[in-house]
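Two entries, shown back to back:
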Amino acid sequence: MSNNLGMDVRKSPRSRVRMDSKVRHLQQEADGRVINISRTGLALELASKLHAAAGSSVVIVNDDIGLLEGVVRWNYGGRLGIMFKPNSNSIAKVSAYFRNFHQEVRPVLSR
């Protein structure tokens, strides 16, 4: 799927969440928070810098989901867009998360 700017966008619907996580890239590790998730990827807000360019392999460690492998799609403004590697392990973990743990997070403040 692509938007009107010709960029690839996530095909699966996103769900807002707030899950503390860690992301590892090579010898670096950074704390962060998953801010939205879909069955194919997630967006992560970083608490510290992580030098990972688009196409870099990363590992996300999360208490609710477990260990997930992914590829950085974008890195902008202290946030990472990560696409899960399409293997049966990642698919099973994300499906189990949505089935057993997921709760949609609503914004606290309204405009």
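entry 2 starts here
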Amino acid sequence: MAVNANDLRKGMAIRHGSDVVIVEEVTHRTPGNLRAFVQATLRSVNTSKSSVQRFGSTEKVEEVMVMRRKLEFSYKDQTGFNFMDTNTYDNFTLQEELIGDAKNYLVENLPLEVIFVEEKAVSVELPSSVNLRVTESPEGIKGDSANNVMKIAVVETGMQVQVPLFIKEGEIIKVDTRTGSYMSRA
């Protein structure tokens, strides 16, 4: 299906040359008295390499259908990150390159969406926040509570998060997956 470059959106899959690419970022530009164009960051499904491309605003691009599947994270082993479709009980193993920074939020039984293009997993979409258990948290120093003083805590995935002084080891906290910042106690 052909669409105008103006209609490109983050997460779309398009055919670019002989490759299928995922649109990661889109910017519409109108420089002075020149013609408008669309600048897009594209990631190849086959090579996982990103590139920046310019399209004329009326240029046609071929959209490729994507399929979203709700999967649940099961475990990580030497072969990769293992997920299960809770409806069909199909298992999927995704490599660390595909998972990227999402690995900092993956805990057992976490539901998320995996995007497939032409039967191949191309990206992982996390929920906006996840609950993580604090495994290391130094004690706050008495008298350090003047103005929103924070300390570094380590959560069960190994990620470090800035948390308030009152958070202790063993507590479960809510972390924003977009910024990696502490939101609240869970």
